[in-house]
Amino acid sequence: MFYSIERSQIHNTDDEQEEEQRSDAEEDQVNEAEPPPPPPKQTKRNWRTTTARNPPKVAKPQVTEFGGGPSDLSLLPSFGNHVAAALWRGECGERTLKCMNPGKRINSLDKPENDKAWFWDRVEASGLRPLLKTNYNHVGSGLLTAFTERWQPETGTFHLPIGEMTITLDDVSCLLHISITGKMLNHAGTSCTMEEGQDMCEELLNFSREDAQKEFDKMKGVHVSFAKLLEIYHDNLNLALAAENNEDEVEETVEFLRDCTIRAFLLYLIGGTLFTNKSAQYVDLIFLSYLQDIRLINTWNWGAYGLAYMYNYLDRASRRRCGNHGGYNFFAHFKRYGQRFLDKNYTNEEPVGAKYYPLKTDKWPYETRTSLDRMEVDEVTFFPYEDHRQTRPFQDISWYSGWIMCGSSMICPHLLERVLRQYGHVQSIPRAPGVSAKAGMNQFSIQDAFDEYLNENYVTEEMRGPRAVHGYETVRGKRDSGDGKKKKKKKKKSKTRGEEAGPSGQG
């Protein structure tokens, strides 16, 4: 019996092995017949879509150096996309920007008579009336093109042979005579919704919702063209003048028409000056929300808005593929650039920007490029407002160092410690941009930092250093020659500043 059982177990084991081999063979045939699964689809990232509007973090440089450019990219990590790198390679020598300038529109704008106190008193109280005097009929495209080629977005400064310079809050205050204190514009994105735009047009401009929607469809967004806005302004002005002469008209209607007239006028004014976009054909309706209460218009920081708006367009224009340039461009430190003549009727009580009228110049930047390459220190006026301080005193907020913004989509660095010579001080080695303007801040934390600038975001007296005698003095760096204890002391001081601040860069 033992033998038969063992024999049957052997036969059963052989049958199981044959069945397993047969099933493995069939499984292999099925696997060979089925095609391999397709690889996952590679989706191309849309770099134009931004998920957040906070100040960007400093990216690591893709390359280590550029011909004719900085050798240390810790300060300028995006230099590879800069137009200067392409110019050095000879790739866009024929480039010139089309600079938008609605100045003629503002200069030719029809205004009520001076005896209309209800109009001019409120325009004066808004703090924006000086913008009527600082508009030019001509803008030198070649001049602006050459300067944008030397603009660096990471530092918010022009990198010139004589050092760094920029347009500061103090420049805005003296050149335009508008406020550089108060609340910053904190709208999200670059525009409002269609429904919000229709509501504002009807309630704030006396412009019907149906007509507003037609205008939005025509302009392909929540925008109002300059032509339509001028029509709205004139219609409200005529209705207001007719209503105030009508004894049967109620006072509320008269005041409503007057307010709509003033809002349309001011929106036209800031759209053609501070917030000139690359199209120069329309005004973004989002700015109307800050004109809602006419009594509170002067509480907004229009100077910082306009400066951030201009910085943003300088950042774009410093990239090689940009063809148009917007923003409100003013710079008073280079008298030799641009043909201009003095306004004989200018008085010192007016903004410095109204002192000269520029003439039409060449649209190509060749001569200005050569002139900037050969710039000497004595060709620059570092602090040109000394004779204007009685009219426009220096404000402490001008020492603010950090982020400025025009809504959550336009956030730019304002780094005063890199341009101390423009404030009459000896230029020292500045901190890294990421230390002065910390990354990861949003529009709310930026507003808090601006309001509390005296606590942290402030160029202190120690950081300012000594006053400059000639206006162009700088602190000696580590590579400068010297001897004795004086040299050792200065080098130690510079090293300490550098260690606290991180890489300071040499760009």
Give the overall shape: globular
Radius of gyration: 31 Å
Low-confidence stretches: 1-14, 46-52, 478-507
Strand line-up of the largest beta sheet:
2-3-4
Give the tally of β-strands: 11
Helix content: 25-40%
Structural class comes to mainly alpha
Largest sheet: 3 strands, antiparallel
Mean pLDDT: 81
| Helix count, DSSP H or I runs of 4 or more residues | 16
Q: Give the DSSP E fraction (strand runs of 2 or more residues).
A: 5-15%
Order of helices and strands, N to C? HHEHHHEEEHHHEHHEHEEEHEEHHHH
First and last CA, distance:
99 Å
Protein name: Aminotransferase-like plant mobile domain-containing protein
GO biological process, one term: meristem maintenance
InterPro entries: AminoTfrase-like_pln_mobile, MAIN-like
Region (Disordered): 1-69, 465-507
Description:
There is one protein chain. The protein contains 16 helices and eleven strands. Residues 1-14, 46-52 and 478-507 have low confidence and may be disordered. It has 507 residues and is mainly alpha-helical. The strands form five sheets. The chain has a three-stranded antiparallel beta sheet, with no helix packed on it. It has helices at residues 2-33, 83-88, 103-107, 117-126, 141-148, 169-176, 194-204, 209-219, 226-244, 251-271, 302-317, 366-373, 433-436, 443-451, 461-464, 484-501, and strands at 98-99, 151-152, 157-160, 163-165, 223-225, 282-284, 324-325, 340-342, 356-358, 402-405, 411-414.
